[in-house]
């Protein structure tokens, strides 16, 4: 492991520390600061020549700053003669802008993929991409890991009964089916109509949830409109206890107010995005993806297969 280096930006230092702890190594030393005009300044404070370097930097809020910090870190490492630089993006920002759904709009996810490639990144690791086809936007290898195993272990430990897995919209049915198969649970869908980027209306619940323990699953919770409306619809259809398992807790805009009012017993998220103090509600549980990412890093560094992590 002497040739392995893991460095982290400022977007999620706690997760980077957790990954290094899982790997049993010290975190790579770098200094990130700003010039007086706000430009980002980076200096790598150890020898990385010929080494295999992994940069942990989810591109969450503030996305633009964190993306620039990631690009500058990659450039600094390549110019310091690192053998390979892998960008570890537990949360890949701009992923929802993956197609032209209106005239004269960009495909920003593709743009970010191109920029990462041109910056010198040799590989990308991420967790639960918003859409699987985003992997095709990259001309370098990308490993999209799944958090389903982490959630499965947590809910098995709770010994819940009469479980129904619910997708908050039709687009998430594939993910919901994977959870249902692992937990040997039923399956239901909330028929949702999105009004705009902030508001969504739950129309119908397809499937039997009356008297059941419901777990809503999704990859991102942003303004919490889908989850809140879905929870209200499920409760109106007789659901007993309602849980939500969401990988990336973006939690922006009116999300916290909506979650406080929603009939959710527990919201379970991961630490791909750090939660600020005002977002740490009493019914929010945070699970760590440090072990999952550390195992992927270890296998890639040792040139071993990571297929087992996708099962």
Automatic annotation (TrEMBL):
Q: Which cofactor does it need?
A: Mg(2+)
Query: Where does the record place the Ribose-phosphate pyrophosphokinase N-terminal domain?
Result: 5-120
Cofactor: binding comment = Binds 2 Mg(2+) ions per subunit.
Q: Which UniProt keywords apply?
A: ATP-binding, Cytoplasm, Kinase, Magnesium, Metal-binding, Nucleotide biosynthesis, Nucleotide-binding, Transferase
Stored InterPro entries = Pribosyltran_N (IPR029099), PRTase-like (IPR029057), PRTase_dom (IPR000836), Rib-P_diPkinase (IPR005946), Rib-P_diPkinase_bac (IPR037515)
**Which amino acids does the record list as binding Mg(2+)?**
130, 169
The domain of life for this entry's organism is Bacteria
Residues given in the record as ATP binding sites = 37-39, 96-97
Q: Which organism is it from?
A: Candidatus Omnitrophus magneticus
UniProt cross-references to PANTHER family, sorted A to Z: RIBOSE-PHOSPHATE DIPHOSPHOKINASE FAMILY MEMBER, RIBOSE-PHOSPHATE PYROPHOSPHOKINASE 1, CHLOROPLASTIC
Extract the GO molecular function terms from the UniProt entry: ATP binding; kinase activity; magnesium ion binding; ribose phosphate diphosphokinase activity
Quaternary structure (record): Homohexamer.
As for family, the record states: Belongs to the ribose-phosphate pyrophosphokinase family. Class I subfamily.
The pathway is: Metabolic intermediate biosynthesis; 5-phospho-alpha-D-ribose 1-diphosphate biosynthesis; 5-phospho-alpha-D-ribose 1-diphosphate from D-ribose 5-phosphate (route I): step 1/1
Protein name according to UniProt: Ribose-phosphate pyrophosphokinase
**Enzyme class, broadest EC rank:** transferase
Q: Which cellular components does GO assign to this protein?
A: cytoplasm; ribose phosphate diphosphokinase complex
Where is it localised? Answer: Cytoplasm
UniProt: D-ribose 5-phosphate binding residues:
194, 218
The catalytic activity, as recorded, is: D-ribose 5-phosphate + ATP = 5-phospho-alpha-D-ribose 1-diphosphate + AMP + H(+)
Q: Which gene encodes it?
A: prs
One GO term under biological process is: 5-phosphoribose 1-diphosphate biosynthetic process
Q: Quote the EC number.
A: 2.7.6.1
The catalytic residues are 192
Q: What function is annotated for this protein?
A: Involved in the biosynthesis of the central metabolite phospho-alpha-D-ribosyl-1-pyrophosphate (PRPP) via the transfer of pyrophosphoryl group from ATP to 1-hydroxyl of ribose-5-phosphate (Rib-5-P).
Which SUPFAM superfamilies does this UniProt record tie to the protein?
A: PRTase-like
């Amino acid at each position: 492991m002497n040739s392995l280096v893991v460095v982290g930006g400022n977007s999620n230092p706690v997760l980077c520390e957790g990954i290094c702890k899982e790997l049993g190594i010290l975190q790579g030393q770098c200094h990130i600061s700003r010039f007086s005009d706000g430009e980002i300044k980076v200096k790598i404070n150890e020898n990385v020549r010929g080494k295999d370097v992994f940069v942990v930097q989810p591109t969450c809020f503030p996305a633009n700053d964190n993306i620039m910090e990631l690009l500058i870190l990659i450039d600094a490492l390549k110019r310091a003669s690192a053998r390979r630089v892998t960008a570890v993006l537990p949360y890949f920002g701009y992923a929802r802008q993956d197609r032209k759904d209106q005239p004269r709009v960009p495909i920003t996810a593709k743009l970010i993929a191109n920029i990462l490639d041109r910056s010198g990144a040799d590989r990308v690791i991420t967790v639960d991409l918003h859409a699987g086809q985003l992997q095709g936007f990259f001309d370098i290898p990308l490993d999209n890991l799944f958090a389903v195993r982490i959630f499965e272990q947590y809910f098995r430990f709770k010994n819940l009964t009469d479980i129904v897995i619910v997708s908050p919209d039709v687009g998430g049915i594939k993910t919901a089916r994977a959870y249902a198969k692992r937990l040997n649970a039923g399956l239901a869908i909330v028929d949702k109509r999105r009004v705009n980027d902030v508001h969504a209306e739950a129309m119908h619940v397809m499937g039997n949830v009356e008297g059941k323990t419901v777990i809503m699953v999704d990859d991102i919770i942003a303004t919490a409109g889908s989850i809140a409306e879905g929870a209200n619809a499920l409760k109106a259809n007789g659901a007993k206890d309602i849980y939500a398992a969401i990988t990336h807790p973006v939690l922006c805009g009116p999300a916290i107010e909506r979650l406080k009012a929603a009939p959710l017993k527990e919201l379970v998220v991961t630490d791909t995005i750090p939660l600020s103090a005002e977002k740490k509600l009493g019914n929010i549980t945070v699970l760590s993806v440090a072990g999952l990412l550390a195992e992927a890093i270890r296998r890639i560094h040792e040139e071993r297969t990571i297929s087992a992590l996708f099962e």
